[in-house]
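Tokens for chain A. Residues wanted.
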């Protein structure tokens, strides 16, 4: 009964466009796409979470599966921290952090310092989505610089001549 009430509260928050102050910890259950995860949140069920300020190619779009695989290599089955998650339309958006794959923490739990959105952009697996409001200035600068560096180095989706961001590839909604 308690689980049902908790789940109903989480769904009500998600449906209302609510924000969760601070951070929420969870574990990645699955990788949906290059910018979306299913996260098990203890006491709140499974949340579908999009990386904030990031747009990856659609799965059927060129580089879509590569982007999904890249995110999987960074996050599949790992503990994550959702920073300032916001819900809209049944989907959460958050800046998502994970312990870096190269971290050697021994028996202690590694701190989640790697920003998955920034990592996807650095790898050339996603665009910096400037259309979404609310990105803090230091992060906006980091994301823009990472996208520029990936373009210059022709990484991932930037290896193509003129990659189309997913909002153009799908067409207007």
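Reply:
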């Amino acid at each position: 009964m308690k689980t049902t009430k908790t789940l109903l509260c989480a769904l009500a928050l998600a449906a209302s466009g609510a924000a969760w102050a601070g951070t929420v910890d969870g574990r990645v259950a699955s990788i949906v796409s290059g910018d979306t995860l299913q996260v098990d949140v203890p006491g709140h069920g499974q949340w579908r979470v999009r990386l904030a300020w990031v747009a990856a190619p659609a799965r059927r779009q060129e580089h879509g599966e590569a982007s999904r695989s890249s995110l999987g290599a960074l996050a599949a089955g790992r503990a994550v921290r959702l920073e300032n998650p916001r819900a809209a339309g049944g989907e959460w958006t958050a800046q998502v952090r994970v312990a870096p794959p190269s971290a050697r923490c021994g028996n202690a739990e590694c701190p989640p310092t790697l920003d998955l959105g920034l990592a996807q952009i650095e790898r050339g697996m996603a665009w910096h989505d400037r259309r979404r409001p609310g990105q803090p200035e230091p992060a906006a600068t980091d994301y823009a610089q990472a996208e520029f560096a990936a373009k210059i180095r022709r990484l991932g989706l930037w290896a193509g001549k003129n990659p189309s961001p997913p909002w153009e590839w799908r067409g207007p909604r």
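Residues 2-100+107-161 form a domain with the OB fold (Dihydrolipoamide Acetyltransferase, E2P) fold (CATH 2.40.50.90). Residues 53 and 129 are 5 Å apart (CA to CA).
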